[in-house]
Amino acid sequence: MAGKPMTPMFLGIAPASFPGQKELWNRPELARNADSFFVRVGTRQVRLLQREIHYLESSHDTVIVHLRDAKHVVRTSLKQFAERLTPGAFTQVHRAFIVRLDLIATIRANHLTMDNMTNAIPIGQQYRALLFQHLMVT
Question: How, if at all, do strands 13-15 and 36-41 pair?
Fold first, then answer.
């Protein structure tokens, strides 16, 4: 990210609260590997554990964070949210969707399903090869 570092208020995302939180936010290589971070949902801050995130869905200028039994709407872009996720645990499968790799249950020609989920997530043509590369499927 070039230029002025983005702040949690701008993104609606903040790393887990502890001493040195501001310094962590300005060091993306550390923040990206954090097990949890806070997101602003309306007027409250909600702590998200990365292992609880099933998938992310972009909708206009917000990201819908889908958990097992809940979802949160966060005002940020999908790209900005993805920068805070652990590399290798998630992958983008469509311009509007990022999924957690270890929760993919089935993959069909142009969509996939996640564990304990009935609705399908589309797979964009430009993301298909990367998905299979991450899953090491031939």
Answer: antiparallel
Q: Measuring CA to CA, how many Å separate 62 from each of 2, 10, 51, 76, 126? A: 22, 12, 21, 5, 22
pLDDT in tens, 44-71: 888 889 999 999 999 989 999 999 889 9
pTM of the complete model: 0.74
Structure tokens, 39: 């997101």
56 burial level (CB within 10 Å; 0-12, 13-18, 19+): buried
Say whether 72 sits in a helix, a strand or coil.
strand
User: How many other C-beta atoms are found inside a 10 Å radius of the C-beta of residue 58?
Assistant: 20
Exposed (0-12), middle (13-18) or buried (19+): which is 106, by Cβ within 10 Å? exposed
Identify the bridge partners of residue 106 per DSSP, sorted by sequence position.
113
Query: What's CA 113's distance to the chain center, in Å?
Result: 17
What does DSSP say about strands 97-100 and 104-107: parallel, antiparallel, or unpaired? unpaired
Strands (E), 28-126: 36-41, 44-49, 53-59, 62-67, 71-74, 90-94, 97-100, 104-107, 111-114, 121-122
Report all structural domains of the chain as residue ranges with CATH numbers, in order of start: 9-135 (2.40.50.1020)
